[in-house]
Design a protein that fits this description.
Number of helices: 9
Radius of gyration: 21 Å
CATH topology of the largest domain: Rossmann fold
Order of helices and strands: EEEEEEEEHEHEHEHHEEHHHH
Bound molecules: guanosine-5'-triphosphate, zinc ion
CATH architecture of the largest domain: 3-Layer(aba) Sandwich
Number of domains: 3
Shape: globular
Strand order of the largest sheet: 10-9-8-11-13-12
Structural class: alpha/beta
Helix content: 25-40%
Length: 316
């Protein structure tokens, strides 16, 4: 049988088949995936093949194969060096909630997030939340920020999770896809998910009741089906993205507007710093590249050994 992993509790995996049945599955023996040193071989979002076993009238599954992942999000294990923990896989898009104040979201945070999402090959949509609570000046700031990111190609929507403004637009984008929500604590992620699917709380309980292990309060990711052909992956206590190890030369490639210009730089390994005939620096001088983006780029490069290798997960 083939199914998708909705929840993992360490040794058991809740797998949903296309006809809607949930199976509790285990992995038999050693199950290694080439190339990834991870503490968990299978993650929420994985598509797996399993055999059904019946013991004492209970059907369980034994996972024997995992389909190739479209993408996956990792977090570095704190204790085991060089080991990673895969939080989720096959994520179609992530909605990054941004607020100008209460709490402030700095553009350096947005840019670092976007670089990581680019490295993971996950599409990001920026949601500027709480527009109901902003004065005119703050709304102008939203417009300005949105114009910077729209120009690069990121979809931006001003929303109010509290009043429901533009929540329908978010729902439309979610149709047929698996989405995640990210952003600082207090930006309104729970409020938005509630506005999108008020009954989700009940559904959460329904799924965990089927669990042989009972309810788990650890920070395992979990996938939920919504009422309108959309899935979300909830990662309790985790607000950002994990670390991606990248080389200095790669960072610029995850700034789409720099990547597009790179072919016009004199040196094909241009870091857009002090090199002559650098197309990115020229664009910066002509205001075609945003200064705040370039500043974030420098910060990421400068922090080579510390910052961007530092775990930028935010946990409660
Ligand atoms: N005015 C206004 N307030 C909002 C809006 N969305 C959320 N809030 C408020 O902001 C606060 C934080 O919202 P939450 O939904 O709990 O934020 P969160 O991102 O889930 O926070 P964590 O659970 O800490 O990660 C609450 O007091 C919400 O009522 C909005 O669109 N407008
Ligand atoms: Zn350059």
């Amino acid at each position: 049988m083939i199914g998708t992993v909705y929840k993992s509790t360490g040794s058991w995996y809740t797998v949903k088949t296309p006809n809607g049945k949930f199976y509790e599955c285990r992995i038999k023996g050693k199950f290694r995936i080439q190339g990834i040193k991870s503490t968990n071989p299978i993650a929420v979002g994985d598509v797996v093949e399993f055999d059904v076993e019946t013991k004492n009238n209970t059907e369980t599954g034994v996972i024997k194969r995992i389909e190739e992942r479209k993408n996956y999000i990792v977090r570095k294990s704190v204790n085991l060096s060089k080991q990673t923990h895969i939080i989720a896989s096959n994520v179609d898009q992530v909605f990054l909630l941004v607020t100008i104040n209460n709490p402030p979201t700095f553009s350096s945070f947005i840019d670092r997030f976007l670089v990581t999402a680019e490295a993971y090959s996950i599409k990001t949509v920026l949601l500027f939340n709480k527009i109901d609570a902003y004065d005119e000046e703050t709304l102008l700031e939203v417009k300005y920020l949105a114009s910077i990111y729209r120009k690069i190609g990121y979809e931006c929507i001003g929303i109010s999770a509290a009043t429901g403004k533009n929540v329908d637009k978010v729902k439309t984008l979610m149709e047929g896809k698996t989405s995640m929500f990210a952003g600082h604590s207090g930006v309104g992620k729970s409020t938005l998910v509630n506005a999108i699917e008020p009954s989700l709380d009940l559904k959460t309980k329904a799924i965990s009741n089927q669990h042989m292990q009972g309810q788990h309060t650890t920070t395992f990711a979990e996938m939920f089906d919504l009422s309108f052909d959309a899935k979300i992956i909830d990662t309790p206590g985790i607000k950002g993205f994990g670390v991606v190890d990248m080389e200095k030369e790669e960072v610029g490639d995850y700034f789409p507007e720099f990547f597009e210009l790179k072919q016009d730089c004199k040196f094909n390994n241009c870091l857009h710093l002090k090199e002559p005939k650098c197309a990115v620096k020229e664009a910066l001088e002509n205001d075609e590249v945003s200064y705040s983006r370039y500043r974030s780029y420098l910060q990421i490069l400068e922090g080579e050994d510390e910052h961007y290798r530092t775990d930028n997960w935010e946990e409660n």
